[in-house]
Amino acid sequence: MSRSAHPAGPRHADVLPEGHYSAPPADLNSLDPKVWSRTVSRDALGVVTVGGIDVKTLAEDHGTPAYVLDEADFRDRARAWRTAFGADADVFYAGKAFLSRAVVRWLHEEGLNLDVCSGGELATALSAGMPADRIAFHGNNKSTEEIERAVRAGVGRIVLDSFQEIVRVAHIAQSLGKRQRVQIRITVGVEAHTHEFIATAHEDQKFGIPLAGGQAAEAVRRALKLDGLELIGIHSHIGSQIFDMSGFEVAAHRVVGLLKEIRDEHGVELPEIDLGGGLGIAYTSDDDPREPHEIAKALTEIVTRECESARLRTPRISVEPGRAIVGPTAFTLYEVGTVKPLDGLRTYVSVDGGMSDNIRTALYDAEYSVALVSRVSDAAPMLSRVVGKHCESGDIVVKDAFLPSDLAPGDLIAVPATGAYCRSMASNYNHVLRPPVVAVHEGQARVIVRRETEDDLLRLDVG
Ligand SMILES: *Cc1c(COP(=O)(O)O)cnc(C)c1O
Where is substrate annotated to bind (predicted)? Predict the structure, then answer.
């Protein structure tokens, strides 16, 4: 997708950008439960509350911008995934979506496992008490030092991503007198994105070992020979923000095909198959994500069917949702600074954050929703673009949205579904301080990642 998918924009207020809301929503004050976390509603005064606390109180106590995370919703979603997949499968939360020690504890309590892909994520997981055997270590370029730490800690699995890494991990495990459980990540020639997938013979990307040309089979051959490794399964991750299950269907078919080859060649039935993450969420009212129980049912059926026809025992399935668990559980709370109407175009609404707290719009052309949350308004809708305070014209948070035309400096607005890949991809561009993550639960707000301070910035700058 192009980063400038809407180059011209509307020339007149009555011409709306293609592919966006064709008309303003009937009620600007309504909060679509698809995009807002589960405890969000408006109180009697029209102020939005979450976890029993209103956003004005949150802004006063914690400042803006702030990521506000609904703990009950997070736990509900984690539990729903766990329950949907049951005792014969494992759910690994993809830590890169958003990781903090509080989140690690919630996941542990709810019975989920955890994916990490760097020494920093591993350190966070271990320091919050996640048992090492419930951690999977990913990445296409894990350093020797990271591998050593992971093996020493006793992580449940390392997902091998290259021929060199097979040897590297085997060598390190052996030198530590260990046998490391590993999976091999393969690329099956399926690229899934939202409502489509593309099946190709090979994939031109940095992750995994291609199934094409017998490379994955060769990787398995090598891994099975090495004393330092215990090969437990095959891993495949096909994309992100996926709604359509047919990409998983093709991927599972190809992975099971490899399992069959392995059985035929080596007489070994590998006990596990990991189908990765990438399940989509609703960023706007136009998105219709599936529930975890539907996804679990579909994936289990696909794998079972494929294995039956290959006469293989059905392996233990694991999945790795990140966005689908944390994404919908948080919104970003901003204060409106400047409101700039551009005649015949749209109104630019500037907030006190921007691409430093949400890079996804600039990076992926992502779409978001937005609402006025500190009050209700009966004013007419105005076509708006929510922008940040950075020195970059691409510093856009929400490209096209309707906000009430009486919007004024000091109003609070919120962008929902920012739980995934926002704080975790946040930067200090323009020396802006990264916002806190405030978890709310049953009337209590608790800072789980504090706001950065200028002292934090200056501490790294050693002069
Ligand atoms: C990013 C990633 C995930 C999680 O993706 P989501 O879109 O957040 O569900 C899972 N597995 C692997 C290997 C990944 O790289």
Answer: 323, 360, 364, 392, 421
Spans of all domains in the chain: 21-70+328-459, 138-321
Q: For a ligand 1 pocket test, name from 187, 203, 237 the mutation site with the most ligand atoms within 8 angstroms of its C-beta.
A: 237
Q: What length does the chain have?
A: 463
Residue 257, both tokens:
């095909």
Q: What is the mean pLDDT of residues 101-109?
A: 98
Task: Spell out where 134-173 has E strands.
Answer: 135-137, 157-160
In this structure, CATH architecture of domain 21-70+328-459: Beta Barrel (2.40)
Strand 272-274 relative to strand 229-235, pairing: parallel
Ligand 1 pocket, 97 CB below 6 A? Answer: yes
The DSSP secondary structure of 94-114, one letter per residue, reads ETTS---HHHHHHHHHTT-EE
Q: pTM value?
A: 0.94
Is ligand 1 within 6 A of the CB of residue 279? yes
Task: Please give the structure tokens belonging to residue 167.
Answer: 């040897």
Q: Residues 195-217: pLDDT tens digits? A: 788 877 778 889 999 999 999 99
Say if CB 13 and CB 405 are below 8 A apart: no
Strands of the sheet with 53-54, listed across from one edge: 41-42, 48-50, 53-54
Q: Is 392 annotated as a binding residue?
A: yes
Best CATH choice for the domain 138-321 from the list 3.20.20.10, 3.30.70.920, 3.40.50.1820, 3.40.50.2000:
3.20.20.10
Cα separation, 65 vs 38, whole angstroms: 21
The answer to whether 280 is a known ligand-binding residue is no
Which tokens in the block code for residue 326? 């944390």
